[in-house]
């Protein structure tokens, strides 16, 4: 018999879970408020807790933190409605094992989840994640951020929720989407990927939703679109920010109702495909520029997974190269000097660029050597390293940094000027990174200045800055 805690302000939910779990021989403690939880949390040790994220006198995430602190061995399952799924995502990041959506669709799912957590001790381990990734030829490495990313992706794969993947060009957004598909219950159904930026605006709608014969010039017969072809599988929309506003309206309808019509068609069709979207641009900024619909972003941004750029996990580069050479049966090795050069490069093209560098080195070395020296690397890499060393030397001679936005501006301007005056060409990606840093620091500084003026009143601050409360929350929570 296990001790199970249920925290939910809906008494019907509490009674339902009490009967369901008690019949299985478990001892169940019910709490309908934060106050009752505070009284019950220290009475006994709990093996499992079902936690609602919304309570009349408390925040479910705060209760989760309490449980994790007081009873770290207690496994927590978060209960949520659709409107609070994003909160459940935060709960997973804070240590919850899983979440279930209310109203409950299948009682057996709760029974199986309870049994698995109480008998197996946990959801699939990190070994399961790495095993699946290895079977797919998907490299995770030792980087902590990447391991957390794939663990979250694995957990959300079996949930029927929309996922938004963000990351720079070449980071492997489609690889992650395919991993989610293979880890989901839809793995036996099709995975279809489409790059919205590679298809013209006029053809994209037809590609997504299909068309009927004669609906436009060249439509010689009826054609199924990707939503229909994906069936019960997964549809991956890469670079969704490139879709026209008219297409975005139809995408919104599919997400809200599951319904769509072919171009030129009269019949309403239904799609059971799971949607995964991706973008290398910040869709929130696209909303402010009126190039992306805010309501569509709200529907897409249920679970957001951000892939870190390769320069933030450069220590995994030797491991990636070793894995790549082994998978492609290439009898080559990279010298330590070569690996150090690769680890210190900025990789604006990320994993895609690294793969191209490996292929280039293998092609040049074929028939000559099995040891890859720096001479087999593209000149841009060696030039970049030399330029970075000169810039670092120049920066070391600059005045020491002082706190405050004014001093940041002075330092930022000085570094940009040094890049501009340098005889070597500075890679554009480095300039773009510095521009993004300026933007982030400027936003933070102006918000803090306004908050000081309003004595912390966020509503008044948003009005003074001419932005919405949602946008202010985004800048405060995301732009850190």
TrEMBL record:
Q: Which Pfam families match?
A: AAA_lid_14 (PF25601), HTH_8 (PF02954), Response_reg (PF00072), Sigma54_activat (PF00158)
PANTHER family assigned: TRANSCRIPTIONAL REGULATORY PROTEIN (PTHR32071)
Q: What is this protein called?
A: Sigma-54-dependent Fis family transcriptional regulator
Name all Sigma-54 factor interaction domain ranges: 139-363
Task: List, for all copies, the residue spans of the domain called Response regulatory.
Answer: 3-117
Specify the superkingdom.
Bacteria
The entry lists its GO molecular-function terms as: ATP binding; sequence-specific DNA binding
- Indicate the segments annotated as coiled coil, or none if absent: none
Q: In the record, which positions carry 4-aspartylphosphate?
A: 52
State the organism of origin.
Niallia endozanthoxylica
Quick one: a GO biological-process term for this protein?
phosphorelay signal transduction system
Q: Which InterPro entries match?
A: AAA+_ATPase, AAA_lid_NorR, CheY-like_superfamily, HTH_Fis, P-loop_NTPase, Sig_transdc_resp-reg_receiver, Sigma_54_int, Sigma_54_int_dom_ATP-bd_1
CDD domains the UniProt entry points to: AAA
Q: Which UniProt keywords apply?
A: ATP-binding, DNA-binding, Nucleotide-binding, Phosphoprotein, Transcription, Transcription regulation
């Amino acid at each position: 018999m296990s001790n199970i805690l249920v925290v939910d302000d809906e008494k019907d939910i509490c009674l339902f879970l009490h009967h369901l779990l008690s019949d299985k021989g478990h001892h169940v403690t019910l709490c309908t408020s934060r106050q009752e939880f505070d009284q019950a949390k220290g009475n006994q040790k709990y093996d499992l807790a079902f936690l609602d994220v919304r309570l009349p006198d408390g925040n479910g995430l705060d209760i989760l933190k309490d449980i994790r602190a007081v009873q770290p061995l207690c496994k927590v399952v978060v209960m949520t409605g659709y409107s609070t799924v994003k909160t459940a995502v935060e709960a997973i990041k804070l240590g919850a094992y899983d979440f279930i959506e209310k109203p409950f669709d299948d009682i057996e799912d709760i029974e199986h989840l309870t049994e698995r957590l109480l008998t197996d001790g946990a959801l699939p381990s990190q070994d399961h994640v790495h095993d699946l990734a290895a079977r797919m030829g998907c490299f995770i490495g030792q980087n902590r951020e990447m391991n957390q990313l794939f663990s979250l992706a694995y957990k959300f794969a079996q949930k029927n929720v929309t996922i938004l993947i963000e990351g720079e060009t070449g980071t492997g957004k489609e690889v992650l989407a395919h991993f989610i598909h293979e880890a989901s219950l839809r793995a036996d159904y099709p995975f279809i990927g489409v790059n919205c930026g590679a298809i013209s605006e006029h053809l994209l709608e037809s590609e997504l939703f299909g068309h009927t014969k004669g609906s436009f010039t060249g439509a010689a017969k009826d054609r199924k679109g990707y939503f229909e072809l994906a069936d019960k599988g997964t549809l991956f929309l890469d670079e969704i920010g490139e879709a026209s506003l008219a297409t975005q309206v139809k995408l919104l309808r599919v997400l809200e109702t599951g319904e769509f019509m072919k171009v030129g068609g009269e019949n309403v069709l239904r799609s059971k495909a799971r949607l995964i979207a991706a973008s290398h641009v910040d869709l929130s900024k696209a909303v402010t520029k009126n190039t992306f619909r805010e309501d569509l972003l709200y529907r897409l941004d249920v679970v957001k997974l951000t892939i870190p750029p390769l320069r933030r996990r450069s220590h995994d580069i030797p491991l990636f190269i070793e894995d790549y050479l082994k998978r492609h049966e290439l009898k080559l090795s990279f010298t330590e000097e070569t690996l150090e050069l690769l680890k210190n490069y900025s990789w604006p093209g990320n994993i895609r660029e690294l793969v191209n560098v490996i292929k280039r080195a293998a092609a040049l070395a074929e028939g000559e050597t099995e040891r890859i020296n720096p001479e087999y690397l593209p000149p841009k890499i060696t030039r970049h390293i030399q330029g970075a060393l000169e810039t670092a030397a120049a920066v070391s001679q600059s005045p020491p940094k002082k706190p405050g936005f004014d001093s940041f501006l002075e330092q930022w301007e000085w570094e940009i000027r040094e890049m501009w005056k340098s005889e070597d060409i500075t890679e554009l990606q480095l300039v773009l990174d510095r521009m993004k840093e300026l933007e982030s620091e400027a936003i933070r500084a102006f918000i803090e200045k306004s908050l000081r003026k309003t004595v912390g009143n966020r509503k008044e601050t948003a009005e003074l800055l001419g932005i919405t409360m949602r946008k202010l929350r985004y800048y405060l929570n995301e732009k850190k």
